[in-house]
Records
---
Amino acid sequence: MKKDFLDIKDLTKKDIVNILSRAKQLKELSSLNLDILKNKNVYFLFFEPSTRTKMSFLRAATLLGANCFDLETSKSSLTKGESLLETLVNLESLGADAFIIRIKEVGFLDLFSKKIKASIINAGEGKYRHPSQALLDLYTIWEECNYNFEKLKKLKVTIVGDIRNSRVARSLFKVFSKFEIETYIYGPSTYLLENFGIYNVKPLYSLKKVISISDIVILLRIQLERQNARKYFPSLKTYNQFYGFSLEKIKNINPNLKIMHPGPFNDGVEIESLLAYSKNSLIFKQVKNGVFVRAAILEKFLIKEA
Ligand code: CP
């Protein structure tokens, strides 16, 4: 059994079914105060900002009884020139059983996986991978399908926005393909991947078409902090006009359309807050489900027999 969760491809379809089913069991428990991870030491190393991922992994690990430690990376000996690998080796000497890491650089996690005995859990890696987000998104969709995996094959899901720079989109493509979900992409041509064909997804070219054919739309955040977003489209207002979603835009074409977003969202850019807080929105269910899906992930990778 693998000790690290770096990529969706670390899991078979059966593994994913088991993780989602376990997450459902955990969600249905009236109180979650378990000792599955009792005496396990889980270290958090986040080199990029996070609210949802960090807090839900923290809550998941705590609910399972783990001891959690947050390395304040900007105040650690990394600032004195110690390498990240040396840091992990030292934390392992302090008893670390797992590292939950968010990092900008791509490929470091694969290296750590070879050098470190503790589990490495990917909590978001540059533009490349965010596998726990993809699993909690799949869980939320499965929940909408009354927990019927067969129904997933009948869905049309469109991922909208900054696909080129999105680790969430890349991980979703992999997980959706395992479950044969018909997947489309839509966004400014500057935001689409040139090689999207390898992911088995199809492009759409009008907002009206996206709204009319999709059962679920997953909106991606314009990552204003990662690049000068304006070089990809003329203005935020123009982006909102052609690619942004609102209750007004969907009400006459597909009033039952479900909207997801990994968060945080830019209100008035890719989504208007009235829609984000409406009955069409699954956004806060995604956040809630994140705790149980991440608990199931921790159980699988930290407990050998899980
Ligand atoms: N979805 C997500 O990764 O959110 P955070 O950046 O807040 O963790």
---
Amino acid sequence: MANLLNESLGIENHIQFRDVGGGLLKAVLTHASGAVIELYNLGAHISSWRTLEQGELLFLSTTAELREGKAIRGGVPVIFPQFGPNGPLPSHGFARSMLWSFQDSKLSEAGNLSLTLRLTDTAATLKLWPHKFLFDLRIELSSSLSVNLEITNTGNSEFTFTTALHTYFPLSDISHLCILGLGPADFLDNTRGLLRTHDDRTEISIGAEVDRIYLSTPDKAEMLDTQRRRKIVLEKHQLPDSVLWNPWKEKGAALKDLEPDGYQRFFCLEAAAIEKPVVLAPAAVFRAEQILSVSDF
Ligand code: TA6
């Protein structure tokens, strides 16, 4: 299968596909700057984003499982059509554990790379969620990494969904994290039954389990690793909420696909549309974007 994809969508020195077994395919995008991303057809899941200057910029558990039906622990899981466990679907929906198809690839004149993956309803999804849809996810690699969502209602009745890009960011140590631009904000605290409360901090750090849906947050947040002197900027559009998560020691240890003491080396900041679910009329299209960029500070 990878050979056919390399013929149809491969771009010499820039976009390559590999079979990794079990029906899974990996795509590797290499930008002229030396930036590289790796992603799978499983979940349209970006598992690695690295640059020559900064090295690896996504956290991927060394014990992550790689098989259809299971979400990869780390990288950028695509959450659709349901965020979390509250609803008729498996927690976080089905998109992250299904096989997507590769649709299109491009190398722009400016040297930017893009790859589009597609997921549509199947007999299995219709049983779980009786709505026809077409979900195109376009990944663009330049000096930054952007993920563009385009979700179309291809059925003849309105549907509602919640969505998130559940991005795992690496840290030298959780004690070195400082997040700017997220607070002050109201949030729903998932460690207290989604109690709505307020965080008045402008600089947010993590020193215990945190599982919060910050509501209607600014569209730009800065994540500092104060030991590495690294700043990752997350810019989002049409994704009003931001989820902050770290399971901490006990809940982290209970995750079989999270490496031992992995909680100390990652956190998730997730651009999301949760508080106000997206309502799509027939033929309507929802578009959203997350852009990640990195620098020293
Ligand atoms: O985004 C935070 C969260 O909803 C947490 O409650 C925790 O469940 C996390 O997602 C990971 O979920 P997962 O299904 O990937 O183990």
---
Amino acid sequence: MTLRLGILASGRGTNLQAILDATMIGELKAEVVIVASDNPKALALERAKERTIETLALPGDRIDGQKLEDRIIKAFRRERVDLVVLAGFMRLLSPTFISFFRHRIINIHPSLLPAFPGLEAQRQAIEYGVKVSGCTVHYVDEGMDTGPIILQQAVKVQDGDTRESLAERILHQEHRLLLEVIHLIAEDRIYLEGRTVRERRSDE
Ligand code: GRF
């Protein structure tokens, strides 16, 4: 069975692009069925349209959060979305949205959580002076970047790194990590035990 993906993105959409490219060459048993954004100008929407994927553009600054989520839920249910992927989505989802897709929403975050949750994680890492940062893919719960961690990738902070140079190296790893997690979910290879994500043994 092909995993039907609903993507939420607010910006340039390079993570979305990585998913689109991988699904196109059959690298993932998944298909992007809809891309929604709270920013009608998001480049992510253009990337979806180029592949003739359905899009939903919502003016996040002009409609209230509840209405925005209702529209997304309606569209995602209509498209029978199995997994919601937050790929640079700059809003906190409400408990109602999360309960609709409980354990079926993942997020990519550019730090090694629980360090540096929230906005500008790469800047936070540089300012703190850590020697290692990275990225995390996690299930989404009601908190800010607090859900169960699925996979993480460390990235070394180099002498002279700026927020931009670190962000660029992390982004490269984000694309790979996100695809790896979608692959694990599409193959039904992970499950939750409490808040710990475990991988099934191949003989299970
Ligand atoms: C990424 O760094 C992601 O971790 C964060 O927002 C950024 C989105 O990048 N949540 P893109 O829009 O996928 O290029």
